[in-house]
Predict the structure.
Amino acid sequence: GRLLEGDSLELSCSAGPAKVILEPNQVVVLDCNLAPVEQVINITWKKNGLPLVEEEHLHVLPNGSLFISSQAVAKDSKYPERAGAEGNYSCVSHSSLGAVTSQTAAVRFSTLSRFFQQPESQTVEENGMARFECRIEGLPSPVITWEKDHEAVPAEPRFITLPNGVLQIVDVQESDAGAYHCVATNAARKRYSNDAVLSVLKGSQPAGGDVTIVAAPENTTVVAGESVVMECMAAADPTPFVSWIRQDGKPVSTDVIVLGRTNLLIPSSQPHHSGVYVCRANKPQTRQFVTAAAELRVLATPSISQAPETISRTRASTARFVCKAEGEPAPTIHWLKNGKAILSNGRVKVQNSGSLVINQIGLEDAGYYQCVAENSLGMACATAKLSVIVREGLPSAPKKVSAVSLSSTTVLVSWERPEYNSEQIIGFSLHYQRAVGTDNVEYQFAVNNDTTELQVKDLEPNTNYVFYVVAYSQLGASRTSSSIVVQTLEDVPSAAPQLSLSSMTPSDIRVTWLPLPPELSNGKITKYKIDYCTLKEADQVTSIEVGGNETQITLYSLHPNKVYKVRIAASTSVGYGAPSEWTQHRTPDRDNQTHVPFAPTELKVRAKMESLLITWQPPANHAQISGYKLYYREVGPEESSNESPLDGAEDESWDVGPIKLKKKVKQYELTQLAPGKLYEVKLVAFNKHEDGYAAVWKGKTEKAPAAAVDPLVQKGPPLPPVQVYAESNSSTSIWLRWKKPDFTTVKIVNYTVRFSPWGLKNASLVTYYTSSDEDILISGLKPYTRYEFAVQSNGVGIDGPFGSVVERFTLPDRPSTPPSDLRLHPLNPYAVQVHWCPPAEPNGIIVEYLILYNANNTQPDDMWTLLTREGNIFSTEVHGLESDTRYFFKMGAKTVVGSGPYSNVKDVHTLREKLSDVLDIHSVTGIIVGVCLGLLCILFCMCASFRNSKQREALPGLDSQAAGNHTYYHRSRQGVAAPSATSDSHELESLMSPLPEDAPMPLGDITELTEVHSLIHTSLPEDIMHGKRK
């Protein structure tokens, strides 16, 4: 506002701007009063964002205020007496806790420009209407008055002076004729416009006719608080009736004043006055009317509608400062900490709603935080203080944090427990974010107390990440550990370069491409591979490799007037990524090359989200061309491999074209395209005879970013699901179930499931599924294989982190393959040694091996001999075979589910039998023992018989019983029927003299005797027995 001599302006951090307009020879003192700051140490000043350079008329007073005089001089200034003081001033108040900066005060000098619209002379009929207008700008806004013949215009209702510099005269009289001019006055000076003469035609009457609007309202933009006029003059006979309405149907505000019965004046405009106003002029006693409309836009400087509050938080907790601002245009919000700008990155995040969130706060986060709202009209700010509370007895920071990259997307982070109060630790938190860039998101994982390492997955390939760890006890959190930076390994490129093709001669194709951006290359590009072939010989592909720093190559020795297909793939140290789509190009015709323009060279296309920026260079025979024709079309997935419409005659095959361009044009942008779609572009040069050969390009526009989220409702990424459980369903499928997180700040629309074989290091083999339910059946898995799963919650346009990994084996199945490496080796004529290795795909734990063998391989399996061996045995001997015989063997493996397929049949020939094999040591030993026993038996019988005969001779005689017995014995030898063994034994016993009682017969002798007696009666022939009797 306008200051009086010696006035001062207090700068603070509050709602609303500060503006000072200095008049000549005026001074102003700017006071720095930042209320939240306690125990101010010193105050510094800035001018236009730079430290203030003091001079005589611009210096800091002992109390910290700034003295500004309009006589401050700036060197090399057009107005040296003034320009040195103009500028934007702000102060910074420093204390032991931090610093606070003030709002900006704009210091300007009063000025008044020349008139840029002068009133014009005019002639009107008596009782008609006259209107004069002049326009001028000044600071402060000038007051415009009107004079007639150098005197103020009469104070009559017929003379209507509007604040915007318009003079309206209604019902003009002959006395109104004269010279009119306007006078503009402000604090700087006073200016007079040129004279405009009003002539009045006496005695004439306005002709009756249709109603017309002589002066219609104009679209107007003002700053809140300023006055505004909506003018409307209508002419007709009789005088028309003028009314105003708002187009949106709302009533016109009651604070709006009507000037001169037809104009609207808003003395102090406010945002609610904005809208479209409609002036309607009706001809009395008729239904005839006309309308005119204009929009009023009221701008407003920023104001803080919700200021942040001073808070105290414990270490490692989260601090949130909420700040909301209003203004027109809508202000942007940024934050300062201790007077310096805060960048949204990692754990310090400025949300789209304008709120500031600080995670894992530490002592270094204490200080003053300021919310600054700015738009084109000015700024407003609010201040809050953050205090960090640290309790006694907390653990010290974790030690020796290290990180090792395991793959292109996985890093293993490990650490050691804190040195102090380690026994009180209940857990750790691991934090990480990108090491380079702004607006990065910091992620964190909770880790159990007994764990000092964690695998962090889902990282970007070939990217630097920074990690740190925090320990927690019941009392609170430790300081953060030292940070460690590690780079993930390279991976194959995520995409292929986009090709442009052209020909300089009928036998070559020039291939050009643009390097891949870092987010797609996934590492350093080491080489490119270009594949090409003719369209009709798609199976005869030729490949050429070039270095990773190349961006073009020319293919030579091609056939004229042939359609070729070309594609490219990029490679890092890991390998090649997926190739590009095939791009087709027809080489020029050799016969017509003198007349047909060659294709434009160096065709390059920069793909954006909704546009393609195309650049090129003229062809070699550019003197013959008249201009260029540009075609493009969207390529569907089903036709990406089909032949493209390369000939210019097939214009109907292209979505758009031809777009004719002049000869000198070398750049064109195609707009209003769809994001993430495959497009093909064709550019041809033409002359007055015909179109030339085409340069073609095929590639995709950039993908659209995630759907925008209402900044007022965005709360951050959703938490991962809880109670994730994997259950084996079959040998090839697993059920994965989970529950919605207990607490979430956004609406979860679906879930992403990530799974891969356990321990996988190649990120390109990881599979992702999306599920809108809280379970999913994942099929197509390998039997008895360990898989790891993780689930992610997805909101609208925002994805949360993946949760903890769960692992599960699929169920076992029958082996898919037989035992491998079956080997047979003959041991002797009757045995074979069998060796084997486990199946390549056992699909479970092998519990048993099955060995089938047969000398006839044409017989069915159930007629082969089966041997089984335990699952942990890999060799065995097969005995009981026949010598010099060809045997056939095959093997199978068995799990708890069942047997797998048998191996291919292998044969082995047993060894030929030798004499030493027939009479081996065991056989010879048996024969010798048998012969010796027989001889001993014979000898014993002879001795027993001789002894019996001696005893009979020694007896005196035989009684009748004895004789009878002897006679009976003699008959028994000659008779046909032999008596029982019992009678025979009795006879022998009666012939033998009894032994003394004190010398019993050994048990062995009894046995031998029984054996000899048995041999005599059963083994010896009867003639031999008679011979012995004789």
Summary: DSSP finds seven helices and 76 strands in the chain. Residues 1-6, 73-82, 707-714, 955-1030 have pLDDT under 50 and may be disordered. The radius of gyration is 55 Å. Residues 625 and 687 are 5 Å apart (CA to CA).
